[in-house]
Amino acid sequence: MDYDRIRELQQKFEENPRRYFAPLANEYRKGGQPRRAIEICKAQLEHMPGHMSGQIVYGQALYEAHCIQCHTESIHRRANRLPLTRDELMGIVDHFRR
């Protein structure tokens, strides 16, 4: 895990959580801490449910934490509620191809 990067993103998150929660959560996810990423995403997505990159990081973290049912429900709930752009839809498709 890149602790310097986590520390940098944590400082930015404290200054502007709306902008930096997804990168911070993603760094925790990539560092092998998907549960921490889930905590961050859940807290922030309550206030910003339309934040697509946050939704994607949240879904990836749920998947990696072996919450397959939660992951599937999350994707379906978001996809049914939000209009997706082509790029967002392709991001979801690419995720499932892995």
Order of helices and strands: HHHHHH
Strand-pairing-aware structural class? mainly alpha
Rg, nearest Å = 13 Å
Helix residue percentage = over 70%
- Beta content: under 5%
This entry's quaternary arrangement is single chain
Summed up, the helix count is 6
Query: How far is it from the N-terminal to the C-terminal residue, by CA?
Result: 22 Å
Question: What does the secondary structure layout of this molecule look like, with pairings?
Answer:
Layout: H1 3-15, H2 17-30, H3 34-45, H4 52-64, H5 68-81, H6 86-97
How would you sum up this structure in a few lines?
With 98 residues, the protein is mainly α.
Report on this model:
The protein has 98 residues and is mainly α. Helix content is 80%, strand content 0%. Helix 3 runs antiparallel to helix 4 and helix 4 runs parallel beside helix 6. The mean pLDDT is 84.
Features:
98 residues, 0% strand, 6 helices, mainly alpha
